[in-house]
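Lab notebook, entry 308. We have the chain sequence and a SMILES string for nicotinamide-adenine-dinucleotide, and the next step in the workflow is to get a structural model of the bound complex before anyone spends time on docking refinements. Request logged below.

Task: model protein plus nicotinamide-adenine-dinucleotide, output structure tokens.
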Amino acid sequence: MRALVTGAAGFIGSHLSEALAAEGHEVVGVDSFTDYYDPERKHENAQALHVLEADLVTADLDALLEGVEGVFHLAGQPGVRASFGPGFELYVERNVHASGRLFEAAARRGVRVVYASSSSVYGDAETYPTREDTAPRPISPYGVTKLCVEQLAYAHARVTGLEAVGLRYFTVYGPRQRPDMAFTPLLEALADGTTFRLFGDGSASRSFTFVGDAVAGTLAVMERGRPGEIYNVGGGEEATMADAIALAESIAGRTLALERHGAAAGDVRRTRADVGKAARELGWAPATPLVEGLRAQWAWVAARVAAA
Ligand SMILES: NC(=O)c1ccc[n+]([C@@H]2O[C@H](COP(=O)([O-])OP(=O)(O)OC[C@H]3O[C@@H](n4cnc5c(N)ncnc54)[C@H](O)[C@@H]3O)[C@@H](O)[C@H]2O)c1
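Result returned:
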């Protein structure tokens, strides 16, 4: 099929685009190369791809959707901490406004959309493992904008006939992980002997999800996800930051220099995905153990640091 991938130069979008191309699909990649983190990294991510530089807020979306049979909408302003304060405006623009425009254009053309939401919509969830029907209670403006994107998809499905399926990613990691997420700076500190800034006491835990598993889940949602539904795409293994640090130290064979800070605003204590719905309906389950995925990310980080 001819697929449009938004956010194609980003961390997950670049892996997804490569996987689609490897399966023989025609990929139209679009990205505005925002400076949320160094755009040089995004050019590096997109080396093997052809990515059009355009902003979903202003682009001619009807032209972009010409001949497209499916949209993977991964573009957005990620990250929890920067969504407090003046940065909030960018979250509204790049998550809510951009998605609203895309949903309208896709509905007009009758194109199916799979869009990225986040485990952040759960906030400090009521129950663990967390199912999709748990009441969303985001504790960051970022999470609120992602919940808004889900509700926009719902409104468009009801009124404009949009066919959309959502997925909630849980802390994705692996080669090309964003530098504002924990593992990339952690492994860079191990590789170049600098200090890692740890927020919180290390006891916060996450359903860490390897990017290859996240990509497989995303493809399964496009192929088999039911319109209007939302699926957790999360790692099978929950680990604390302290566990992850110990594992990274053993992989690198070095000791990490740590600088401790208080917990960051908007960071939840814990995430644990219940992936039963994705297993039953999509036949998808995370397959990569944390140690294996972390080894792959270490190889990527170490090579980048050595080449710098
Ligand atoms: N990485 C995770 O753990 C995680 C977890 C939950 C949800 N998500 C969501 O998954 C998606 C991909 O995340 P990622 O980690 O790959 O982030 P990323 O920042 O690496 O990729 C997002 C890309 O979208 C682009 N973009 C932003 N606004 C745009 C616009 N208006 N028009 C065109 N392009 C635009 C950015 O330049 C960036 O390259 C995001 O929507 C994010 O919120 C990610």
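Notes for the group: The chain has two domains: 2-172+210-233, 174-206+237-270+288-307. Worth checking against the assay data. The pocket of nicotinamide-adenine-dinucleotide is lined by residues 6-7, 9-13, 30-34, 36, 42, 55-57, 74-78, 94, 98, 116, 118, 169, 171-172, 178 (CB under 6 Å).
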